[in-house]
Amino acid sequence: MSNANREAPPSAGRAGIKRELPEHFRDYRHVWVFIELERGEVHPVSFELLGEGRKLADKLGIQLAGIVLGPPGEATQHAVAEAFAYGADLVYLVEAPLLADYRNEPFTKAMTDLVNTHKPEILLLGATTLGRDLAGSVATTLLTGLTADCTELDVDVDGSLAATRPTFGGSLLCTIYTLNYRPQMATVRPRVMAMPPRTDKPVGRVIRHKLSMTEEEIITKVLGFNLDRQSAKANLAYADIVVAGGLGLGSAENLQLVKNLARAIGAEYGCSRPLVQKGWMPADRQVGQTGKTIRPKLYIAAGISGAIQHRVGVEGADLIVAINTDPNAPIFDFAHLGIVTDAIRFLPALTEAFTRRLSPHSHDKLAS
Amino acid sequence: MHIVICIKQVPDSAQIRVHPVTNTIMRQGVPTIINPYDLFALEEALRLRDAHGGEVTVLTMGPPMAEDALRKALTYGADRAVLLTDRCFAGSDTLATSFALSRAIVRIGETFGAPDIVFAGKQTIDGDTAQVGPGIAKRLGLLQFTYVAKIDSIDVDAREITVKRRSEGGTQMLKSRLPCLVTMLEGTNEIRRGSLDDAMRAARSQIVKWSAAEAGIDDLNKCGLRGSPTVVKRVFAPTTRAEKATQIDMTDKTQHDLADELIAAIFTRQPALEHELAFDGGQ
Ligand SMILES: Cc1cc2nc3c(=O)[nH]c(=O)nc-3n(C[C@H](O)[C@H](O)[C@H](O)COP(=O)(O)OP(=O)(O)OC[C@H]3O[C@@H](n4cnc5c(N)ncnc54)[C@H](O)[C@@H]3O)c2cc1C
Ligand SMILES: Nc1ncnc2c1ncn2[C@@H]1O[C@H](COP(=O)(O)O)[C@@H](O)[C@H]1O
């Protein structure tokens, strides 16, 4: 939950007061990470959260648990194994045929039952369509606090979760506490946290829990699932290289220059928000606060001014290259390499230069 | 059919500036708008009403000036507007907000007829949590469909609804029952230009204004700051990177020289990339 939903800013006094944690919350312990399993695959954000959860658990001297909810079978067992491989000390598992497809009702029930039985101190979920749908229902059922889309998680001196998130379109950050309720819940968007290393750990302690619900009790039925077409699917969030264009490119046709460069270097392409609003690119190609958060090794931004909402989505990139005609464009404040030039002329030259350099005979050419 | 849609009045964040010294939002002179995501839900509600008959009630919780947002919604063609406004709601986080709104929806149901569908936006641009919708659903015990791209069919008599819902790798098709809560995905429709009739009606319309007591909310411990489990401890500006971008000098260079120089600079900083690109790139 965020301050920005508030009608008025809270008084500093109130925020400073440390209230006593009620007696019945005192035995809430351990950090839980929801392992998001959908249609047989674990969403990588779950591993990123295990990495963060590990750090929190170590600071607090408590254990890290993965929460796996899924249908009986191999995919669910694989999710359990992966949770251990990415750092979980134990796994709570609810295996039931009802959990084959995501539906709010059985997932909320499974999760809230687990929480009420095993009492975690901190519960983290990915801010995906599934995670956000579930987190809101679980937090309201448990009547506890939930901080959405965090960019930083930490524990303070007295062991409270300090969850930091952007607010007002990224212009400000705020740190939010859930002082006297448990669990302290937070969601984090994919790619905001770094992927932790994977180790081949043997499967550890698995605590099973039954789902006390029958199919008849669930009103919502799944009629089908349309997989996105592979060709149309943008895998921006997890791409190693991303090339993106902005309004500076001037026309929908000029976006071809971005796509050509992307193709030449095996990159994904993306764009700033106005291009989506103009209908020049589909929404799943948008980079930024209301689009995708990316974390590539190389990000090339052409004709993008670098507004704060764009910036928050790309800051995790290892190397940011900006091409912009305006030497004072804000993007040069956070890019690592800048070129002040016309992207429409420069992109074809860059595509050609990359192709030359990367062609199999490039070394002969360099030598001659 | 009775449809309730929750909208929020937000500052137009494209025009928000942060005070450089105090790190507070400078609201002065910043225009307010209906949360852009709520307009997709409003349009969907209006279309359903046009197709199936019935009424659309817009609801907002906010300060008295939030009336402007409601009037705007009426100009688009909503039939009725309810403003929930009371000092005791100040400082509400999403749990407290969803509590107050859900109580107001119960009161709307008692007063104007029980809603068949409650709509909310996908998220707000100031709070940006996407939690108030699910929160209301849970509090009212409604079935919940978030990120809906399309309402395929509604059968008011059979109490059935089928929707297409966005999920990470595709689209889920769900069949369920009314009443339910739906949050609409952005870009699924475009808000209509209201008719002249609607504009005139909106100007004359009496907006229903409820205090907490009038909305039947007596449990003030669940409202405002007291009803909010989360506490904002610190608000601060993002840190800026210490150095600006290293500019590649352009003097006397062709675009091709520049390109070669940039590539060299990229590979100097990220040597591993050159190796990876040699194998993956160029296809
Ligand atoms: C609530 C909210 C959420 C938002 N979310 C996002 C988001 O997720 N992602 C996002 O990107 N934006 C988002 N925005 C929009 C953001 O504020 C900016 O408006 C947007 O990023 C600007 O896009 P742009 O840089 O392409 O266009 P502009 O700001 O118009 O910049 C164009 C740039 O191109 C340069 N240029 C012009 N001609 C050339 C040329 N020939 N060659 C090279 N450079 C040239 C100009 O100098 C300028 O810097 C959001 C805004 C709001 C209010
Ligand atoms: N104060 C409010 N009044 C009415 N509706 C609201 C209010 N706050 C949030 N909502 C609704 O809940 C949705 C999600 O808001 P949020 O959880 O802030 O992202 C919004 O798009 C609105 O439909």
UniProtKB/TrEMBL annotation, chain A:
This is Electron transfer flavoprotein subunit alpha. It comes from Mesorhizobium helmanticense. Residues 31-222 form the Electron transfer flavoprotein alpha/beta-subunit N-terminal domain. FAD binds at residues 272-273, 286-290, 303-310, 324. GO terms for biological process: fatty acid beta-oxidation using acyl-CoA dehydrogenase. The keyword Transport applies. Belongs to the ETF alpha-subunit/FixB family. SUPFAM superfamilies: Adenine nucleotide alpha hydrolases-like (SSF52402), DHS-like NAD/FAD-binding domain (SSF52467). Keywords: Electron transport, FAD, Flavoprotein, Transport. The keyword Zinc does not apply. One of its GO terms (molecular function) is electron transfer activity. InterPro entries: DHS-like_NAD/FAD-binding_dom, ETF_a/b_N, ETF_a/FixB, ETF_alpha_N, ETF_asu_C, ETF_asu_C_CS, Rossmann-like_a/b/a_fold. Its cofactor is FAD. Binds 1 FAD per dimer.
From TrEMBL, chain B:
Belongs to the ETF beta-subunit/FixA family. May play a role in a redox process involved in nitrogen fixation. Residues 22-219 form the Electron transfer flavoprotein alpha/beta-subunit N-terminal domain. GO terms for molecular function: electron transfer activity. Gene3D superfamilies: HUPs. InterPro entries: ET-Flavoprotein_bsu_CS (IPR000049), ETF_a/b_N (IPR014730), ETF_b (IPR012255), ETF_beta_N (IPR033948), Rossmann-like_a/b/a_fold (IPR014729). Pfam families: ETF (PF01012). The keyword Electron transport applies. The keyword Transferase does not apply. It comes from Mesorhizobium helmanticense. Keywords: Electron transport, Transport. FixA and FixB form a heterodimer. This is Protein FixA. PANTHER family: ELECTRON TRANSFER FLAVOPROTEIN BETA-SUBUNIT, PROTEIN FIXA.
